[in-house]
Amino acid sequence: PNASDPNPTINAVVVDPDGNNNLPASLNTGLIGRWDCETLVPIGSYHGFADLAGNDQPVECRSFSMSVDNSGMISKAALFDQEADHLSAAPSLVSGRTAFSVSMWFKLQNNYVQTKPTSIHTVFFAYNNALDAYPEFFLTIYKGIAGSPNQKIVFNRYVGTSVVQDWTAEIPGGLYVDNAKWHHLSMVKNGANYRLFLNGVKIKDTAGTSGSWTATGTGYFCFGKGIPNGISADHSFRGSMDRLRFYSRNLRGTEVSALYGQE
Question: Model pTM?
Answer without folding.
Answer: 0.87
